[in-house]
Amino acid sequence: MSAGKAEFLAWIEGLARVYAENRERLTELDSAIGDADHGANMHRGMQAALDKLPGVADKDIGTILKTVGMTLVSTVGGAGGPLYGTLFMQMGTAAAGKMELTLADWTAALEAGVNGVVMRGKANLGDKTMVDALTPALAALKAASGESLAQALRRSEQAADKGKLDTIPLVAKKGRASYLGERSAGHQDPGATSSHLLLKAAADTWATG
Ligand code: ADP
Ligand code: MG
């Protein structure tokens, strides 16, 4: 099974809905170790991306992803906007010209996106950032063999979920949370949480067809 454009659009729409529903939760997490804007940031960015979708709905998946990325960069400030913008833009570059993605295509796109985030933000695994959810999710996708796209996406979402929870005891090394030093330990990272939600929205989209 591959991911067609209709499902892609459904994923983006689903993600906008998920960030709307989790706005308070993400803000609450960011208020503990940041500046309490992560929920508003992700919500605003994805709503703006949603507004752009009709204009690119007939284009290839790469163009759709790049449009989402550019919209996030231009509407969301702070660390989250440029990092999520990079994730989507690099995924879009990897998926350029494609009207559907196989599991291998999806894996290659996420790999390009995660590499972009790491290059831009310079976070290592264990620095208590979104990378701690994205990297295990990518590893799970790469390890998937003989699985359907839906199964692989679910495993990748589950790996991100664990990566997100594993940020709780960590001391932040990047971003605003790092200003707190040891006091950042004991809190779940907001960006790892929004990254898990992004992958969960994908798994949920393809699970239901
Ligand atoms: P800001 O920190 O500017 O207020 P957000 O609140 O939108 O931006 O996003 C915060 C999240 O961004 C953090 O929880 C963390 O996951 C992520 N983040 C911050 N700095 C980096 C970085 N250098 N690399 C990767 N992720 C980062
Ligand atoms: Mg913040």
Main beta sheet strand tally, sense and closure: 2 strands, antiparallel
* Number of strand elements: 2
CATH class category: Mainly Alpha
Strand content: under 5%
Q: Separation of termini?
A: 10 Å
Name given to the CATH architecture = Alpha Horseshoe
Structurally, how many domains make up the residues?
1
Q: Helix proportion of residues, in percent?
A: 55-70%
Order of helices and strands: EHHHHHEHHHH
Looking at CATH, the homologous superfamily is DhaL domain
Q: Write the CATH fold name.
A: Serine Threonine Protein Phosphatase 5, Tetratricopeptide repeat
Q: What's the helix count?
A: 9
SSE-based structural type:
mainly alpha
In terms of topology, how is this protein built?
Layout: E1 3-4, H1 5-21, H2 23-33, H3 38-56, H4 61-75, H5 80-94, E2 100-101, H6 103-121, H7 131-143, H8 149-165, H9 190-208
The protein binds adenosine-5'-diphosphate and magnesium ion.
The site of adenosine-5'-diphosphate has 24 residues, from helix 3, helix 5, helix 6 and helix 9.
Write a short abstract of this structure:
The protein is mainly α and 209 residues long. The protein contains nine helices and two strands; from the N terminus they run βαααααβαααα. It has a single domain, classed as DhaL domain (Serine Threonine Protein Phosphatase 5, Tetratricopeptide repeat), CATH 1.25.40.340.
Can you walk through the features of this model?
This protein is mostly helical and 209 residues long. The protein has a single domain (2-205), classed as Serine Threonine Protein Phosphatase 5, Tetratricopeptide repeat (Alpha Horseshoe). The protein has helices at 5-21, 23-33, 38-56, 61-75, 80-94, 103-121, 131-143, 149-165, 190-208, and strands spanning 3-4, 100-101. A two-stranded antiparallel sheet has the order 1-2. The longest helix has 19 residues, at 38-56. The structure holds adenosine-5'-diphosphate (ADP) and magnesium ion (MG). Adenosine-5'-diphosphate binds next to helix 3, helix 5, helix 6 and helix 9.
